Amino acid sequence: MDDKLEDIVRVCDDWLVEFLNSDYAKLLNAEQMWESTYMIPSFVESMYKYYNLIPADWSEEALENYCLYILPAKASADESFFKAITPVLFKFFAFLDDKNVIQNALELMLKLRDIQDEIVENGANPKFWEDGKSIATEALQEGVNINDNSELDAFLNYKVFQRNQKVLREMFESTKARTQGKGTCICGSGKPYKECCGAVRERVFKL
User: Fold this and answer.
1) What is the per-residue pLDDT for 160?
2) Distance between CA 165 and CA 173 in Å, rounded?
3) What is the pLDDT of residue 105?
4) What predicted TM-score, i.e. pTM, was given to this entire model?
5) CB of 63 closer than 8 Å to CB of 50
6) pLDDT attached to residue 186
7) In 3-state terms, what secondary structure has residue 130?
8) pLDDT score for 40
9) Cα 145 vs. chain centroid, distance in angstroms?
10) What is the C-alpha separation between 144 and 164, in angstroms, rounded?
11) What are 69-128's pLDDT values in tens digits?
12) Is the pLDDT of residue 38 over 80?
């Protein structure tokens, strides 16, 4: 972590404490309050890590990209988390505006309002997920306690076994297709197998 990011994280920690004790946070429900303890630091840090933006420079474009693509890919969370993004950040932007930290709070808040439904939709859509999130979500659906290392390791080992079995099966089917003359030769010549190594194989077995 570079020095600038360390400073941002340190200041954000102070903001978070102040925000949670402010009138803005009182407008959130208990679940949204809880989600904000992760959501706000993650947002502030990500704006710098992904877009090299300090709070005073946050833009609508970066906000939209983060909420619609980065967050759904990274956050292993249920629908309630993604529904909480708009109200939590909405109140947080108002809080920072009151502190004169950001000057475009209204624009950011309007952008959140415009994309709030899409945020929830993308969060629930596997095509936006990274492999790690997909596996974690699958583990939760299978009833795996992801906080239990031994249980999670057993699940991950099983997924690796499944993946290896799939790779081996695909290799077998590919080789089978080639040796039956249905594909290009395994030597890489680009010729049909029967006209290349397959023909050599036939001659050898006839000797």
Assistant:
1) 66
2) 12
3) 95
4) 0.66
5) no
6) 55
7) coil
8) 95
9) 20
10) 21
11) 988 888 878 889 999 999 999 999 999 999 999 999 999 999 999 999 999 999 988 888
12) yes
Sign of CA dihedral 17, 23, 29, 35: negative
Q: What single letter denotes the amino acid at residue 168?
A: L
Q: How far apart are CA 155 and CA 148, in angstroms?
A: 11
Contacts from 153-157 at CB under 8 Å and sequence distance 24+? Answer: none
Kindly report the CA angle at 102 between 86 and 66, in degrees rounded to 5? 40
pLDDT of the residue at 181: 55
- One-letter identity of residue 72: P
**Length of the chain counted residue by residue:** 207
CA dihedral of 120, 79, 83, 33, whole degrees rounded to 10: -150
Name the residue among 117, 31, 125 with its Cα closest to residue 75: 125
Cα separation, 88 vs 16, in Å, equals 11
Q: Six-digit token pair at 18?
A: 């102040």
Sign of CA dihedral 86, 89, 92, 93: negative
The domain spans of the chain are: 3-129, 149-206
pLDDT of res. 150: 79
Q: Following DSSP, what letter does each residue of 24-64 receive, concatenated?
A: TGGGS-HHHHHHHHHHHHHHHHHHHHHH---GGG--HHHHH
